[in-house]
Amino acid sequence: MPLSLRAKLLRDLILDVWGIAAFLVNLGANLWAVSQYVLSGRYVWAALVLTLLGLASVALQVFSWVWLRADPLGLHVSQPPGRCLALLHLLQLGYLYRCKQSLQQGLLVWQQQVPSDFDLAYADFLSLDISMLRLFETFLEKTPQLTLILAIVLHSGRAECYQWVVIIMSLVSISWALLDYHRALRTCLPSQHHLRLGSSVIYFLWNLLLLWPRVLAVALFSALFPRYVALHFLGLWLVLLLWVWLQGTDFMPDPCSEWLYRATVATILYFSWFNVAEGHTRGRATIHLMFLLSDSALMVVTWVPYGAWLPSGILLQILLPVGGASFLLGLVLRLVYYHWLHPRCHWESAQVDGTRALHFPEWCQLPQNSRMIELAQNFFPKARDEASLPWEGEVNGVL
């Protein structure tokens, strides 16, 4: 095995272990927080944390189960029988099982002297699904949990040790999930565009710097007006769900699960940008950014006059400028990334299992994750003819 390939496989194994460990640590921190809330008599807070954990876990198991049922017959040779697999998902262990399956396949490939193309492609197939599930789990559970914990801290005026653990782990895990998803999409490109260390750092930072001011604005609104934050989320979520539906998504294998996907995407869009449709997305990304910026500004205007209600230890005069500076810096880093580091690709359409895929004959005999290939085609811009003028080209995601 070439040293470069062995190093890549080892790096992927380390990242898989890190992802599983982060998931378990974050779960443990949340259960720790629930126990502390119960012991201190904060039953409503404990119930909210458990509700978010339960809803996210159920959605994650449904996605995993539907994808496994839609995969080609005979692809997952070593997986347990259907009833055992269904029981694992019913017990909320489907995601962890898939992580274990991906880790085992990665170890199998890494130990081989000359791994077969099928084993390599199958390892990529599994890791792509894990990256997608991790992203969904991040925005269905970690991001709402982070918002809730911040609202509790702002309301009480102090942060306990377990709350700091949840906040730090959530911030790092959210940005890491976005980076991991982006790296996974790049493996679907027709030519290798590896995300180097410097590009990874920039991508990680701009996501972190743009996301936490949004979470902070929602958390402060929740701390002051806890009865209205649910109405605020539901109203925006319905608007975003309508927007996703109007873009004609066709990601899941059946209409019912497609609505679950659209609902999940609408939840992601409440906090961050997520592309779901093919075409030049500069306009859609700009609309979404302005929408979130306007909404966050309205929330700030709403709760600033009532800031005296918060404990005196919370310095709004510091939080607001820091949040604004973070947003501007994140926007600059995002523009830098998309202008110089985002790849353009030559896509050729073909039909593989009813889904557009890369038009390479040798790929037809290998496992192809058509779900992620379609998202990659939507996310990465199509390269234009070299004769085109520089200002005539559009780069997907550039504002």
From TrEMBL:
Principal subcellular localization: membrane
Keywords: Apoptosis, Cell membrane, Membrane, Transmembrane, Transmembrane helix
Top-level taxonomic group: Eukaryota
Transmembrane segments: 12-33, 45-68, 161-181, 201-221, 228-247, 259-277, 289-308, 314-337
PANTHER family found in the cross-reference section: XK-RELATED PROTEIN, XK-RELATED PROTEIN 8
Source species of the chain: Hipposideros armiger
Family in the record: Belongs to the XK family.
Gene Ontology CC terms: plasma membrane
Membrane topology summary: Multi-pass membrane protein
Reactions the enzyme catalyzes: a 1,2-diacyl-sn-glycero-3-phospho-L-serine(in) = a 1,2-diacyl-sn-glycero-3-phospho-L-serine(out)
GO process annotations (BP): apoptotic process involved in development; engulfment of apoptotic cell; phosphatidylserine exposure on apoptotic cell surface
Lineage: Eukaryota, Metazoa, Chordata, Craniata, Vertebrata
Subcellular localization: Cell membrane; Membrane
One Pfam family cited in the UniProt record for this chain: XK-related
InterPro entries: XK-rel, XK-related_scramblase
Keyword set includes Transmembrane: yes
Protein name: XK-related protein
